[in-house]
Amino acid sequence: MTGATSSLRARLARNLSWTFASQVIISAGAVITLFITARALGPANLGILALVESFVRVVDLILRIEPWQAVMRYAIQAQNRGDDAGFLRLIKLSILIDAVGGVVAALACMILAGFVAPLIGLDPGTGPHYIYLTAFALFFSFRPTATAVLRVFDRFDVLAKIDMASALIRLILTVIAWQAGMGLWAFFVILLVQNLSDRLLCFGFAMREMRRRGHRGVFAANGISAIRENPGILRFMWNSNFNVILRQSANRFDVLVLGAMLNPAAVGMYQLGKRVMNRVVKLAGPVRQTIYPELARLWEQGKVARFNRLIVIVSVSILALQLVVAIPVMLNIERIIEIVFGADFVGAGTVMNILLMSSIIFAAGVALNPALLSMGKDGLLVLVTVVSTLLFALSFLPMVHLFGVEGAALSNLIFNLSWTIGCAFGFQRARG
Length: 432
Description:
Blueprint: H1 3-63, H2 68-80, H3 84-116, H4 127-135, H5 143-152, H6 156-179, H7 184-212, H8 225-229, H9 233-261, H10 264-300, H11 304-331, H12 333-341, H13 349-364, H14 368-374, H15 378-403, H16 405-430
Helix pairs in contact: 1-3, 1-4, 1-6, 1-9, 1-10, 2-3, 2-5, 2-9, 2-10, 3-4, 3-5, 4-7, 5-7, 6-7, 9-10, 9-15, 10-11, 10-13, 10-14, 10-16, 11-13, 13-16, 14-16, 15-16
């Protein structure tokens, strides 16, 4: 075993252990939090919480570009050539993009709140105020820069600890609100507290890590110069974000359209299934986060065979692990829902099974996203996501009209299946 191979495996093992362990803990905490929230609020109020959160997230996705993937790619290149000043300028550019994007997204949410609230099934009186409160956290949207910095420095442990602390804060506050018999407003305040703590803690620790590594003066650096020094960074940033915008917007727009077509109670049923599905997907997230820097390094160094082998091993392992866990759950889903979330949500069994299948398909191909980005095939990734989004959009209304909430879940399955097949085909062609 060569020294480089040993170092790669050691980094992957260390980073995966932290990120996967944290996601297991966070997922367990999130399910408990969802269990308490569902029992405290019921389907209708859970639907209102989901509608507000989805609207704010959609506006945030559309108006705020997250620079972390592009910054990571070009920062690794700056590190390889020993360009410390260029590294600082990249981080400053990232901070500027985060700051401007956060302000624009927050103000847009607040301006649109009164108009949008009744359109998506919210009360015209209280709905806008829920949106104002939730959108306030967007003014402090520095998490993307913090993520890039900590991952470039292999401090996945710091990110994991912050994520666990944030999930624990929300769980504790949710238990307090439930036991005290607090209403819906309390759960919006809890959401705000979690978002603020997560964003600000991450940024604070990232800046501390930079100082510890000897990178001082980031706020005095000329961030705009990084655009000239790194040709293609804006294109890469836009393409990587456009892919996320399409994918995540589809993952949120369905909630808003469902609210407009049906009612908050139906949204609550759908949201229950989606939250469980998202937990399954996020268990695969640490793998994507951990292998992206390694894939970028392997491709940059021309080690194609090791690059390909890593993708295959990761994809097969995730699929096998998920099938072992998911099949018993899917066979007993209605009984599990009744025990965990209460009899009010038993009708969500079919929805949850469809969404679990959807999440398994997506998670099995989760390594293809960082693989294509590392290969510089961001345009191909955008094309696949555009086609998948069109299929989702064209199928959503007819599916909901024919099958109700279950139809929305089927459209989600169509989206993830087409995206995974498209990425796999594109990756196969790109590597020759």
